[in-house]
Specification:
Elements: E1 8-18, E2 21-27, H1 29-34, E3 40-43, E4 46-54, E5 57-62, H2 64-69, E6 80-84, E7 104-113, E8 118-123, E9 137-140, E10 143-150, E11 154-159, H3 161-166, E12 177-182, H4 184-198, H5 205-210
Antiparallel strand pairs: 1-2, 1-6, 2-5, 3-4, 3-6, 4-5, 7-8, 7-12, 8-11, 9-10, 9-12, 10-11
Length: 213
């Protein structure tokens, strides 16, 4: 479990195919110091397991399903990546609940420079738009953000100077692909609502009375 607060920008130090998967070496002095083999780490919002570590470099292995749903396949040597270690139960929840389970890949469609901020527009695949709401939460490459505005295809998020400086948002251009994870609470609500609608024992006043309510 993560919070979407990036702790370090790492560097892709190595990349090699492993069957239909991919092994990545990440150079990150701060994160590597705390990580051990079998620990979890979010890389551009993707939860991965550390499989080896040497000095300031740790290694992860992305399987086929991860490569299909994320931007990992396009990562190159020397690319920068957002890193976050898992949250501790006694820590403050600085962003929102982020699982590191990327739903899909979105595309930067516009970057609007304001006086003290930037507005990034992100195209969301149509079938995932139902998980977005104005002033709701979204994780973009592992960064917890608030949806400022949205339309029938895009969401807009506001980036402050601190976020710009401490994440890879400063590297994005129009057309850049980004990992998107939507609020898990909305997904559970949708699932429970759908289950009730399709249940043979649909919620009703009679049913509630028979159940003792």
């Amino acid at each position: 479990m993560f919070t979407g607060i990036v702790e370090e920008i790492g560097i892709i130090a190595g990349k090699k195919k492993k069957g239909d998967g991919l092994r990545l070496l990440i150079s990150a002095p701060k994160s590597a110091y705390e990580l051990e083999v079998n620990d979890s780490v979010a890389i551009n919002g993707v939860c991965q397991t550390v499989i080896s570590k040497k000095g300031t470099i740790f290694e992860v292995e992305a399987v086929e399903e991860t490569l299909k749903k994320t931007t990992f396949a396009s990562l190159k040597i020397d690319n920068l990546v957002n890193l976050e270690l898992p949250m501790k139960l006694n820590d403050r929840l600085g962003g929102h609940l982020v699982l590191g389970h990327v739903d899909c890949v979105g595309t930067i469609t516009n970057i609007d420079k304001r006086v003290n901020s930037w507005i990034y527009s992100v195209r969301v695949p149509e079938r995932f738009l139902r998980y977005t709401i104005p002033i709701g939460s979204i994780a973009i490459d592992g960064v917890s953000l608030t949806i400022a505005e949205m339309n029938e295809s895009d969401v807009n998020v506001s980036i402050i100077p601190h976020t710009m400086e401490n994440t890879i948002f400063k590297l994005y251009k129009v057309g850049s692909a980004v990992n998107l994870e939507f609020d898990v609470i909305g997904k559970y609500i949708e699932r429970m609502h759908t289950t009730i609608l399709h249940s043979k024992n649909k919620l009703s006043e009679t049913g509630l009375r028979e159940s003792g309510y």
